[in-house]
Amino acid sequence: MKEKNKKSLKKNLIEYGIIFVIFGGLYVTGLHTEVLGFLQRGILATGLMNPDLEKKEELALNDVNPAADFNMKLINSKGEKVAMEDLKGKVIFMNVWATWCPPCIAEMPGINKLYNDVDKEKVAFIMLSVDQDFQKAIDFNEKKGYDFEIYRLDGGMPVMYQTQSIPSTFVIDADGKLVMTHLGMGDYNTNKFKKFLKEQY
User: Fold this and answer.
1) Measuring CA to CA, how many Å separate 138 from each of 10, 165, 176?
2) Per-residue pLDDT at 58
3) Phi, psi of 145, deg, nearest 5
C-alpha cells in the first residue's frame, strides 16, 4: 500500500512539475496573455458575455444618460494629437484596454469585426491603451493586423471614464450622452449590439 502511495505521489509531482514548466515558460515568454486571451475568446463564443442591452443591472447601462465628458486629449499610433471634442456629433465606441490583459485580447477580434461593419461617418472608435509603454500597444496592433486606430492619453482621464476594470467599454451617442458603460469583456460583434449603435446616431 505504501509503495502504491509513493508511486501515486511521484506521478502527481511529475504532473504538477510539467504543468509548472509549461505555465512558467508561457509566462517568461509573455505568451500567457495570448493563451488566456484565446481561452477567454472561447467563453465569448458561447454568448454568455454578450452585452445585455435590456438588463441594466447586469451591464451597468446607465438609468439616466449623463452628458459625456469630452475633455480628453489623445495621441494616436502615428504620434498625432486628437481631441475627443473633435468627435462630437458622432457615436463614440470607447474601449479601455491593455496588451497585458487577457480579456482585452479576447474581445479584440470581435471589436475589429464591429469596426469594419459600422458606418465610419457616423461611428468613431477610441481604442484607448493604458499600457505604460505605448509602443507595446502599437506593436501588438500591427502584429494582429487590426484595422482600428489605437490611442493613449495625452493628459488626465476624465473621472467619468476612470475604472478599475480592464477592459471597460463606453458608448456615447450622437447627442453627446453617455448611453452605455460595460465593465469587463464582451462580444460586441452581434446584430443586437449593431442595432443598438445605429439607434444612437
Assistant:
1) 46, 22, 29
2) 41
3) 75, 30
